[in-house]
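Example 9 (inverse folding). The structure is encoded as follows.
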């Protein structure tokens, strides 16, 4: 997959491209990221890429000419063009999967200043926003979108890691822990030491439901609950440890005691 980012500030992407998962994906040629400087395309004799809004108003508006000419220089027949804009659809994991699966070439246009000339909009296939707040420019949004897509490309991250992440199944991810067993009075739940993988998976599903219900109840509005999930919700409401969990902990008690001793 190729991601082309049109920006007035290409230097902002230096750290993004040279660290962690993105750097490895680029080195393995699992993705190609192209950063194009919109300033290189202005025909203004003073090199300007912005101007005051016609009719008056605060701030500066990105001129349409350099942006559109920049876009035309990189756009191919199969390119999908996205303009980062506050009026766009809010970006989410479903959209990230859609981009990763359906497009070989994604072009992201980063706005800046007070906004972009309205005439740029018609050159975009869609407008996308990363949230209901205002940033100095679209560069941070372009990084967020690119990162979310790249990690979904085959081979970039282990498939099992992606399956259980937040939003992948319309739920927030269950709690995760690492050693030590006890830290400042807080301990890792016993069930995770039980060795009963079926019970652990069930507990994690239950915790995903609990956390989603607490922090993002909006995600459950149109969620289709399975029969097992409905039972787990009842257990949550009762606030009691169910029989299956007690049995799993009891059978794995020797492992739990070992970690307590450590």
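The amino acid assigned to each position is listed next.
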């Amino acid at each position: 997959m190729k991601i082309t980012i049109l920006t007035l500030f290409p230097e902002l992407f230096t750290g993004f491209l040279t660290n962690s998962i993105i750097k490895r994906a680029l080195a393995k040629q699992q993705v190609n990221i192209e950063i194009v400087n919109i300033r290189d395309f202005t025909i203004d004799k003073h090199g300007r890429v912005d101007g005051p809004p016609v009719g008056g108003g605060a701030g500066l508006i990105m001129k349409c000419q350099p942006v559109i000419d920049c876009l035309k220089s990189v756009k191919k027949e199969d390119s999908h063009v996205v303009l980062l804009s506050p009026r766009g659809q809010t970006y989410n994991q479903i959209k990230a999967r859609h981009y990763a699966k359906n497009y070989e070439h994604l072009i992201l246009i980063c706005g800046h200043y007070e906004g972009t000339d309205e005439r740029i909009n018609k050159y975009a296939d869609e407008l996308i926003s990363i949230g209901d707040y205002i940033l100095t420019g679209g560069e941070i949004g372009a990084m967020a979108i690119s990162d979310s897509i790249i990690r979904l490309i085959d081979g970039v991250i282990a498939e099992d890691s992606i399956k259980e992440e937040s939003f992948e199944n319309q739920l927030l991810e269950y709690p995760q822990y690492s050693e030590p067993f006890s830290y400042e009075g807080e301990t890792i739940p016993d069930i995770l030491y039980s060795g009963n993988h079926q019970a652990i998976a069930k507990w994690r599903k239950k915790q995903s439901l609990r956390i989603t219900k607490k922090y993002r109840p909006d995600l459950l509005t149109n969620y289709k609950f399975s029969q097992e999930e409905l039972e787990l919700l009842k257990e949550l409401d009762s606030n009691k440890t169910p029989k299956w969990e007690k049995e799993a902990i009891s059978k794995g008690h020797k492992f739990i005691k070992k970690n307590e001793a450590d």
